[in-house]
UniProtKB/TrEMBL annotation:
Residues 118-236 form the CdaR GGDEF-like domain. It comes from Streptomyces gougerotii. Belongs to the CdaR family. This is PucR family transcriptional regulator. Residues 286-342 form the PucR C-terminal helix-turn-helix domain.
């Protein structure tokens, strides 16, 4: 069936309505309005442009204008019927479009949930992914951005970030979405510039929010793995007080190793740093001193500036730590033990939280 024939089907019966209105001056019946809406819905489902359909209604109006509509009152009555018909048809068309959009959004949301949680058959996910522009036969990486408030896909922030990426890279098998209030970007592993640009845009759009990037992995299961790595990187960054705009899970691989044996790290923190709890003021000021010292690359002058102390005061604190723990921060071997214990303490929230 040609498009012209389809268009004629969607205006079927409209000429009869015009003729009857011209003769009687009546308005459309409830049944006629319902029929026009139904035709509008079906036309939308068939993919016929609304502009074409409205144009055809106007053309039929011109072609079948009732000869009896010669007085101003009769003309007004016919025009009112035209308005009713076109309005009912457009209402049905728009309702079908809204329903299609909701169904598409629901399908997209279901796919995203399955993709990021791996709750469905991976082969089926890969098939559905092509509909949303992803080729999961390739390796992908996931970036996750967190801001001061949760976001969903209807919020301006994710829409702004998505427009920025589309404007920069076009259609490059990129998926931008939200999940649990965070912004998500899934991109091919060989297009690292996409994730970096996403990080830049998300950081700005979320007023300084932090972005974590998971490592690239192949297949649908690789997306899940990269997503989880990014989430873990965000969690580690929060626990360690890392304030970098972008953190990469590849740069934080040592930390999961430390936390894998919680009992061992608890024993290390207790045995190495436990004596600091006997200090006046508790362990926290001395622990902060070690953190600043190690973060400064063991440069006393820089650590002192970061702590707003004199170098002499910092040196005194380090000597005190040496006396209390038996580990000298200036000795390379002792330093490694102390730094590992400090990392464990930061991950565990010690001394504020029990080990």
């Amino acid at each position: 069936m040609t498009t012209e024939q389809q268009v004629e089907d969607w205006v079927s019966g409209y000429d009869r309505i015009l003729a009857e209105v011209g003769e009687t001056g009546r308005r459309l019946t409830r049944e006629e309005i319902h029929d026009r809406r139904t035709l509008g819905e079906r036309a939308a489902d068939a993919g016929i442009p609304l502009r074409t359909l409205v144009g055809r209604h106007l053309a039929v109006t011109r072609e079948h204008w009732p000869a009896s509509a010669s007085t101003p009152a009769a003309v007004d009555g016919v025009l009112a019927a035209v308005e009713q018909s076109v309005d009912a048809f457009a209402s049905g068309y728009e309702r079908a479009q809204r329903m299609a959009v909701r169904q598409e959004e629901a399908a997209r949301r279901e796919f995203i949930d399955d993709l990021l949680y791996g709750r469905s058959d991976l082969g089926r996910i890969a098939e559905r992914a092509e509909r949303f522009g992803l080729l999961l036969s390739h390796a992908h990486a996931v970036a996750v951005a967190v801001g001061p408030e949760p976001y969903d896909e209807t919020d301006p922030v994710p829409q702004l970030v998505e427009r920025a990426l589309t404007g920069r890279f076009g259609e490059r098998s990129i998926l931008v979405t939200t999940k649990d209030g965070r912004l998500i970007c899934v991109a091919p592993a060989d297009q690292d510039e996409v994730l970096l640009y996403f990080a830049k845009q998300a950081h700005a759009a979320t007023d300084g929010g932090q972005v974590a990037v998971g490592r690239p992995h192949p297949g649908a299961g690789g997306v899940v793995q990269s997503y989880e790595e990014a989430l873990n990187a965000l969690d580690l960054a929060e626990r360690l007080g890392l304030d970098e705009p972008v953190v990469r899970s590849a740069d934080l691989l040592v930390y999961p190793v430390l936390t894998r044996d919680r009992q061992a790290i608890a024993d290390l923190v207790t045995s190495v740093l436990g004596p600091l709890t006997q200090a006046r003021g508790g362990a926290e000021p001395l622990l902060d001193t070690l953190i600043a010292y190690f973060d400064a690359g063991c440069v006393a002058a820089q650590a002192a500036r970061d702590l707003s102390l004199s170098v002499r005061a910092l040196t005194y604190r380090l000597a005190r730590i040496h006396r209390m723990t038996g580990h000298n921060p200036a000795d390379p071997l002792h330093r490694y033990t102390l730094q590992t214990a400090v990392l464990g303490a930061r991950l565990a929230g010690w001394p504020g939280a029990p080990l």
